[in-house]
Amino acid sequence: MAEEQQFLTAKGAAELRKELEELINVRRPKLAALLKEAISQGDLSENADYIDAKEQQAFLEGRIKYLENLLRSAVIIEDSDDGNAAHIQPGSLVTVQADGEPPETYRIVGAAEADPRNGKISNESPLGAALLGRRAGETVRVSTPGGVTEFKILEVVR
């Protein structure tokens, strides 16, 4: 089965690499020491410290594996603001406006770094997916929990 393509901005990839480094070089050794101490307490079947440390270890190792796979397969997108783009693609900065609402500006990013409150929407989100391939001046219709909303694309910057 082919992996789904994940997009990351250069800044997002750097932040994830920093997190991965922290997990591997700081948190993993601390957790290993915690586990060693819990094991030394004896009977592991009813040892709450051991059970907790094993759960933390499973979460930590899962996150490390996820980040390693993501960073290995991610497509790094440029997020420069150096002029108008012909069409919207991952990395584009897009200003849209719904009827009767103030304009909103979003950077189209991959799902791993989406943060709508900080102006980053996923290319996989309903709005992000609807915007891909479109140009300034076009209108897109997006199904939302409140019904279908139309967004006018005011500006596209790459």
SSE layout and pairing:
Layout: E1 7-9, H1 10-40, H2 48-73, E2 75-77, E3 93-98, E4 104-109, E5 120-122, H3 126-131, E6 139-144, E7 147-157
Parallel strand pairs: 1-2, 4-5
Antiparallel strand pairs: 3-4, 3-7, 6-7
Helix pairs in contact: 1-2
In one word, what is the shape? Answer: elongated
Give the CATH level 1 class of the largest domain: Alpha Beta
Distance between the termini: 32 Å
Query: How many separate domains?
Result: 2
The CATH superfamily of the largest domain is known as: Transcription elongation factor, GreA/GreB, C-terminal domain
What fraction, in percent, of the residue positions are helical? Answer: 25-40%
Strand neighbour order, sheet with most strands: 5-4-3-7-6
Number of helices: 3
Q: H/E order of the elements?
A: EHHEEEEHEE
The CATH architecture of the largest domain can be given as Roll
Structural class: alpha/beta
C-alpha-based Rg, rounded:
21 Å
Taking the sheet with the most strands, its summary is: 5 strands, mixed
Can you tell me the residue ranges where pLDDT is under 50 for at least 5 consecutive residues?
none
What percentage of amino acids are in beta strands?
15-25%
| CATH topology title of the largest domain | Chitinase A, domain 3
* Average residue pLDDT: 88
DSSP strand count: 7
